[in-house]
Amino acid sequence: MSFTQACPNCNYQRKETDSAPDWQCPSCGVAYAKVMGVNQTLRAHPGARTQIRAQTNRRVWFDRLLSLLLIISVISLLVSWWAKNQLPYTKEISSRLQNEPIQKPSRTSPFNFEYRKRTYSIEPVADYELWGLVVTHNDITGMTDIIHDDDSVDIKDICVVWGDNLQNNDYRDVSYSSGDFTCYYQYDRPMDFRHEQLSNNHLLSDNKEVRERIRNIKIGDQVHLKGMLVNYSAAATPDWTRNTSTNRNDSGNGACEVIFVDEFTVLKSTNRMAYFWFDLSLWLILFLVLFKLAAIAFFPNFLN
């Protein structure tokens, strides 16, 4: 027999032309008996309506809070991603970065040192001291660097600028990037940018504390280092040697400085907070997404 009353859920009055089953509302699709049963329960137990409403409100507010946190985290991630690669303005640059690199003949004899259970032979070429602004660096843990890994003796390659390049803000309009062993830069408008005041530096060290400082270098850091320009080879492959450049005017293959670092100092850091918020936002997004999926999969009645 057809249901002749108005739907107890949406008040729709069935028509003879409706094709939905007799037990189902053609408009909202609910089962008449189910809604009537719920309504009878609520009439018999008035407190149940308040409890259901409270549970629904808690779940709605929880979902809204989760969504709001996720939106804030995504916005924070995007803003910090942009900010972490911005270079400081000229007025923020230490005057020490106006210094030219100091290079003197080395009196140190060749020596060996071990790193990650491998022996390397070091041939000192010149004592070296450098001040510079880090504009890009490679990432041995990244997927784009297919040559280096955690066992590579080259801890990090840093590309720095100094001197007249930092006299005005033109250097901020240069696009910098790092390859496995190279530093690239380009600009789209005429500017006074001096190639000889930019260098890509392969950094090695036998000092654990120095290595850790080098690993933590960020774009925008102003650094000072002392050590030696060196040629080096691995004991396992003595016929292969990586040689250092000793000339700031060269370019292309072999133009990078290979530096065995004794002292390494971050004079000033610009983007540390941006990196902090980027990492925090990334982990928070991951946590919120996993929490939401876990709640759906394993705790469907959470807050009910």
Question: Your description of this structure?
Answer:
- The chain is an alpha+beta fold and 304 residues long.
- The protein has three domains: 44 residues, no CATH class; 70 residues; 181 residues, no CATH class.
- Helices cover 28% and strands 25% of the residues.
- The chain is built from four helices and nine strands.
- A hairpin with a 4-residue loop joins β5 and β6.
Low-confidence stretches: none
Number of domains: 3
C-alpha-based Rg, rounded: 33 Å
Q: Assign an overall shape.
A: elongated
H-E order: HHEEEEEEEHEEH
What fraction strand?
15-25%
- Summarize the main sheet: 5 strands, mixed, barrel
Average predicted confidence as pLDDT: 86
* Termini gap: 37 Å
Strand order of the largest sheet: 3-4-7-9-8
Keywords, separated by commas or semicolons:
25% strand, 304 residues, 4 helices, five-stranded mixed β-barrel, two-stranded antiparallel sheet, 3 domains, 9 strands, alpha+beta
